[in-house]
Design a protein that fits this description.
Chain lengths: 521, 463
Amino acid sequence: MSTPARIIVGPQRLTEFWFLKRSQALPKWVAPPALAPTPAAAGDISHLFTDDVAGVPHLREALLELIGSAKQKVFFCSFLFADEQIVKALAAAAERLRGGVYVLTALKDFTPDLSDLEEDLEQRAETERNRRQRHEQNLRRLSQAGAWLRGIKDCHAKFCVVDDEVALVTSANATSEAYTRNPENGVLVREPSVARELGRLFAGAWLYAANLESMPGGDLDVCSRNPGPLPPWAGLAGGEPLRAVATFGQTERSLLERTLALIDGARQELVIASYSAVGLQKHAVGAALKRALARGVRLLLVLRPRPNEDQQATCSWLLESVPPEQVCVRGHRLTHAKAIVADGHRALLWTGNLDGHHGYDNGIEVGIEFSRPEAVRLVRDYVVALAGRAGYSGVFGPTLAELAEAGEESLAGEGVLRIPAQVRGVPEDLAARLAAQRVGYFRAEGRLVLRVGRELHLVVRETEAVWTLEEVVMGGRFRAHPLAGWVSDCTLVIDVETRPTVIQMNNPRGHRGGHQRGRRR
Amino acid sequence: MSAIRFDAIAETVSRMGIAPSVLHVRRVPTYEVTFDALQFLVEEKLPAPDLAVLGLLDALGVATADDVRTYLGLGFEVSDALLRLLIKEGLIQQQGAASAETEEDSLWTRVKALLGLASPPPPASRRPTQARRVELLDPTATGPNLELTEKGRDVLGAGLHPRVVERPCRMVLWADPPHVARAISEGKQRFASDNKKPPLPPGDVPEPLRRLDELFALPVNERMTALGLGERLRGVEGRILGVVPNRQWEVRPAPWERVNLMVVAGFESSDLGGWVWRTFVGSEQHLELYPRLEATVLGVNLEPALLQAQATGLLSGEPGVPTRGRGAFRLRCQAATILELMGRSDQPRDCWLSLGGADATGWQSALLVRGLAVSEQDAHLAMVELLSRHENSARRDLRETARQVWTLLESYWEEPGALAPPTERWLMEQLWLRPVMRKAVCAARLEDDLVKPYREARLPEVA
């Protein structure tokens, strides 16, 4: 850089997908329901959800009723057991039925990631600690009551089957938060043929996949076990208008098959809710979604807007070059609901996510696919309503200014970025990067750090309207540091010290100079 | 003092032959008695010169001292000393000499009495003393004036010369009844002998141990009955003659002595209703048959029917027919009692039922009993308890284990088919109430809950 470069940070458009924290009206084609959806039954299918607005635990109530009605046996699969009432009901069922309560859960490797985006790191750690404690206490109670606990490493399914007659498949883990606070949904099926297939899947997993167990009737005592080989497996049976689907390692892959069929069958729209969308770039589900978008199928996608690079990369890949009017992506900070509705005619409610890494080709997930119009409408209405009250909007290629505006904090103003001669590692194209890439900031080690793009970190010392560069760090120790906000509406003059120092202060917007840091909402 | 372990005692008795059905047990205090001197009769081989003199007199009938001197060729002094010794020991005598009883004669008479060859003399301590005239050999005598005594003839015939020796001795004895348990070898008991406790004051010495001189002086067969002491004491050479008159003995408690149980065991005999009673002494782990002490004189209850009635009353049960098997008394009782009788074993087995504490004479009694269920419900409850003790097996196969346990009980009760086994539902209910059995109950329903319903799974539909 031979001459002082004058750049404006903010107008540059980012070539990625971003969730912006702002509410936005849904497009007309989404056609929101006139009334807020309520849990309702359509024949032998009931769509249930946690009413996170009113705090009504419909899912928990349904589960309690289901467990309480058991006459012979209860199969319950949940990664977590952190809900007092569910545990109490299962313990009571074990006592009443003299056993017959079989549980698949996490007995080790407890690493849930169900954090609330609005909690800070310390709060999240505390929440997780409490949840883990509750989980262990509840497992102890279940074991003492006579429930037989087993654990499978990659079991993410959440479902309950009672007497092979009724089944409930849900996105919700057995936690109080899932039943009262988080958007979660599920489907209750009173069709014995479907319940029996899910029961068979549970039995297969419990008997032949679980490698940990705690025997009933005593304190929690987790021992490893060596499950025998799975006998010849007949895939889950079922058909129209209702069927159970699942992923059971490499043995049962009907979830993937039916997901692909559902997406590929869509002609007008896909309405999807998922906790996450990751790892789809090289996965069949991602390819199917791409095909659907390519043939003009509109997409409503509701996700949890996690600061996750994988999700950002996946959504960027998926939505790149898709006309904005064809896609509507919304983010809800607590959503954990899962559903795919195609053309309003067919729905799949499952326990996994749009996750190319897990759940379609490995692990254990279950789902219910159905085509009863009334039931499908209930699910679609729920997802649309969830999108309607989502606080985040997904945007492909926003400007940095839009990004900063959507955040709570940003840096704006004018000033000089002075680059002393002794500072090493300054990229030749620094000015170009500042003008084209996202520029965020945070404070660390008592200094201001600007993150340019993903890796480049400029550590500067602030004096009035001058930022003096002290250190250049590529990734390194600042890679995982969260951003405090974005730099926007900022004019910078880059001054390299090898030349006689010339400081030009431009103030096109009438500011007296100097960077202004302010809170924006 | 630890409680008497009837099962251990019965086990020890059983090792000697058959298992007892009744045990009466009492602890007997053990004492160590140290005698200053006991007399023992030691038979020594007759020395050659003595044998020659006795042989000469036997051959000649009568001989002079000069004959003997000439015959031996040992000179006057030696021959004379030899003859004096033989006269002193009463093996030869001078013709016409008064047959005064020497001390040796008296001992010989006592020995013969002890051996049952003559009536016993009065106890040594009461024997009257008698003065006697000392006869000196006349060195110039040439007449045939020496002859064999009767004793000399006996000794010559046996070739052995009995001598009386006095030795200190320590023994372990019981006081009630008085009984010699064993002699203590001084050579092996240095610590004990060097660390003796003070002897009991006379007033604390049990009465039977104050009369040991009398008891020791009894003829062998009577002494055996009275003291359990025969001719000899193990480890001590010679036959016991008794306590040296006017010598004392000390009595001390024997704290380390293990031989302190007296056991009267009752056995069913092969005759219907017949019972045999035997007495044992020793410790729980080591008992010896003690036939010298008749159970009938010990004041214990030798009426099995009365004992059974006592046991029945104790258990609030109903008397059953005495079994012919291992000799256990059968008692019909409620489940709780059956379980108590079973102890902690995982097999139904007879147990020793104590009939209470010690009586006034220190005896404690116990019966070998077999608990039979007084009702079907009680039998079922007993089965649940026993089944709970087979947790591992039940966890593998509860139904089969339950069947085996029921068969086991039926066999034990010797009433096959008399009672119906419990229903599976009832059994599961009962087992569920025991947390330790919940594993087994859950495992038992695993097949029904997780396997059977899905065995006929349909094949996936062809797309």
